[in-house]
Design a protein that fits this description.
Radius of gyration: 24 Å
Number of strands: 14
CATH architecture of the largest domain: 2-Layer Sandwich
Distance between the termini: 22 Å
Largest sheet: 7 strands, mixed
Oligomer: single chain
Number of helices: 15
CATH class of the largest domain: Alpha Beta
Shape: globular
CATH topology of the largest domain: Cytochrome Bc1 Complex, Chain A, domain 1
Helix content: 25-40%
CATH superfamily of the largest domain: Metalloenzyme, LuxS/M16 peptidase-like
Number of domains: 2
Structural class: alpha+beta
Order of helices and strands: EEEEEHHEEHHHHHEHEEHHEEHHHHHEE
């Protein structure tokens, strides 16, 4: 499970994790329970799955629609397409004018955003609870009747191209995380293509491709609706039936990526030189199984021991003791299919990439060679527990937790089971998965160096998507309907509030919540508004 993308969903019993750090010597570890998320589930006749999480302790409600389509589904020769389409979903529909989603949320003190991941695209809003009906209407309208016309298509494509220039091509280490890491990590699976895409591929996309993409993937049987917060259950069911039940389920099958990434049996290393690179960097990735695999629990704890907090192994050795790097981190990038454990360092001045690479691989080898200590194990589990609790403090966080479990693992109970498994992880389990997945021959290493360090006459390695990566063409369904805005006087408008607020305020930003999506250099996720990398 990727804790950056979601926390652990708890829907059954509270799972205990030992709080050893707060226990006196000789005493049994104190057990802390995690309050489960209570939800209801139903499926409409058009196969839209609806999840409801009621919380009367908040004045807000979060509406989220997640589609089972991401950058891995980008058409051949059009990487970045799913992300560009995400932008278009904020333009006009048959009944809504362009950017009206902002007015329905920001003008009443709420916010909205969206993100594109390798495996999914999600859209979410947080608003005062008395605006729920209006947002359900709006989400249903853009699912069923998005208007795709040349002007908005052209303008949003230009916006995404500029985002690519700023967030990836011009940002220090942007290409390392967004483009080079996935391209070297995969030789067959379309995860090799960066979510942000390329300027050439974005330019190659046409308006007919956009219409075909919407007809192929943006349909009720390829989506889940999650409503979390303060609502009346019977009223919610009535509104969902009113706005979503009438959306037609297409008869065509939904294309699915079925490519299996082969196991890496020989280490690969590439060296690149890039401008705007203040210090050398090294990144090493190792394949890990899909998020639903039983070994993910032990790998999650391993990652926490390796790189969570200033007591982690990476910080204590590479940053503090040896002073090789100004920062050293790791992340567990799990997906519907093969993912990666990634470890990287931004080196200190005067330190070489070779020294940094050796230090990172030495820390990985420690997990293979000897068990972690009992103190490390307990601290890592408590850190995971804390992140899980914090992620469910808001209506939005609860909804995101549940939705990610459904779309990534195919099971709303998946995170339940993962947290239970994490509580049972032993030092021997961590050593076993390190030996199984993190061998030297299983590594893919990128040395990312300043252009000024390039020796005269040296030839840098090229890191590009391999020709063996298998990507499908987009085949448009038959008779794709072209939606146009309803004539003046015929638009269906969101209903006025029964008790509108007298005073309305705007949220400070579109991503104004602690759990709102920010562009992540490691998770392959992009949002409409991308904050700088920290």
């Amino acid at each position: 499970m990727r804790l950056l993308r979601s926390a652990l969903l708890l829907t059954a019993a509270c799972f205990p994790v030992a709080a050893a750090a707060q226990t006196a010597p000789g005493q049994a570890p104190r057990q802390i329970g995690v309050k489960p998320i209570a939800y209801t589930q139903r499926t409409l006749p058009n196969r839209l799955r609806v999840y409801a999480i009621r919380d009367t302790g908040t004045p807000n409600v979060s509406v989220q629609v997640w589609y089972d389509v991401g950058s891995k589904d980008d058409p051949k020769g059009k990487s970045g397409f799913a992300h560009m389409f995400e932008h278009l979903m904020f333009k006009s529909t048959r009944n809504l004018v362009s950017e009206q989603m902002d007015r329905l949320t920001e003008d009443v003190g709420g916010y909205n955003n969206a993100s594109t991941n390798d495996d999914y695209t999600n859209y979410y809003e947080v608003i005062p609870a008395n605006h729920l009906q209006r947002l359900l209407f709006a989400e249903a309208d853009r699912m069923a009747s998005l208007v795709v016309e040349p002007k908005s298509f052209g303008s949003e494509r230009d916006v995404v191209k500029e985002e690519l220039r700023q967030s990836t091509l011009s940002r220090p280490y942007g290409k390392l995380f967004s483009l080079y890491y996935p391209a070297l990590a995969y030789t067959a699976h379309p995860y090799a293509r960066g979510t942000i895409g390329s300027l050439e591929n974005l330019e190659a996309a046409g308006i007919e491709d956009v219409r075909a993409f919407h007809a192929t993937y943006y349909r009720p049987d390829n989506a889940i609706l999650v409503v979390s917060g303060n609502f009346d259950p019977a009223q919610l069911n009535g509104w969902v039936d009113q706005y979503f039940a009438g959306i037609k389920q297409p008869s065509a099958a939904i294309p699915r990526v079925t490519v299996a990434e082969p196991a890496r049996t020989k280490a690969v290393t590439r060296t690149v030189y890039e401008p705007n690179t203040p210090l050398p960097a090294v990144l090493v990735s190792y394949h890990v199984p899909a998020d639903r695999d039983a070994d993910i629990a032990a790998l999650t704890v391993l990652k926490a021991v390796l790189a969570t907090g200033e007591s982690s192994r990476l910080y204590e050795s590479v940053v503090y003791r040896d002073q090789l790097a100004q920062s050293a981190e790791a992340f567990l990038d799990t997906k519907q299919a093969t993912g990666n454990l990634v470890v990287y360092a931004i080196l200190a001045g005067g330190k070489t990439a070779e020294a940094g690479e050796a230090a990172l691989k030495r820390e990985i080898a420690r997990f293979r060679d000897a068990p972690v200590t009992a103190a490390e194990l307990a601290e890592a589990k408590n850190e995971i527990l804390t992140q899980s609790i914090e992620s469910r403090e808001t209506a939005e966080g609860k909804a995101s937790t549940l939705a990610a479990a459904v779309l990534i693992d195919g099971d709303p109970q998946a995170a339940d089971k993962q947290l239970a498994a994490i509580a049972q992880v032993s030092a021997a389990d961590i050593q076993r998965v390190a030996q199984k997945y993190l061998g030297d021959t299983q590594s893919a290493t990128i040395r990312y160096l300043p252009i000024g360090d390039k020796p005269a006459g040296a030839v840098a390695d090229a890191i590009t998507v391999a020709p063996t990566v298998r990507v499908a063409d987009l085949t448009a369904p038959a008779n794709v309907a072209i939606v146009t805005p309803a004539p003046d006087g015929q638009r269906v408008q969101p209903l006025p509030l029964a008790h509108p607020y007298r005073r309305r305020s705007r949220s400070p930003s579109r991503s104004g919540s602690p759990t709102a999506c920010g562009w992540s250099r490691w998770s392959g996720t992009t949002c409409r508004s991308s904050p700088p990398i920290s």
